[in-house]
Each structure stands twice: as structure tokens, then as C-alpha cells.
Amino acid sequence: RELIAGHDFPTVGKVTVSIGVEQIGAKGMPTTLLDRADQGLYHAKENGRNKVVFYSEIAPELENTEVFDDIELF
After folding, report:
1. Which 3-state string (H, E, C) describes 3-72?
2. Separation in Å, CA 28 to CA 14, 23, 50, 64, 70
3. Per residue in 22-63, pLDDT tens?
4. How far apart are CA 40 and CA 73, in angstroms?
């Protein structure tokens, strides 16, 4: 992330990277892992950008928020 932020790209100039990270466990479902990494990514974007956010660090504050993850097919 720091190398990218410090590089001057020829066509676009300076860019930054926001990253969400989740630890992979033996019982982790791929969809759950991706959802948690995605939550970390959006947390990074909403809180200053250009940072790495680990889901485990933001999980306590997310427990008190309402999540709508139902899929309506019809």
C-alpha cells in the first residue's frame, strides 16, 4: 500500500489503495470470508482511505449494526 501511494504513475499520477483483510480459518465459508474482507474495505474507504483494515479489529463495532443480507430471488 505504501509503495503504491509513493509511486508516481505515468498516466494517472498518484493513487492510493484501501484494503480489507479477513483471516482464513479451517471452517470459514468463502462467502463469509469475502463478505468480511469487503466490510473491511468499505470501512477503510469510509474512514480516510489509503489504509488496511482487518475485519477482526472492526468486528466489535459492527456487532451493533443491523445487517440485511437476505437475497430475494422472486
Report:
1. HHHHCCECCCECCCCCEEECCCCCCCCHHHHHHHHHHHHHHHHHCCCCCEEEHHHHHHHHCCCCCCCCCC
2. 36, 9, 27, 22, 19
3. 999 888 899 999 999 999 999 999 999 999 999 999 999 887
4. 27
pTM of the model: 0.76
φ and ψ at residue 9, rounded to 5 degrees: -75, 135
Which three cell numbers mark 72? 430475494
Report the candidate in 26, 32, 29, 31 with the shortest Cα–Cα distance to residue 59: 32
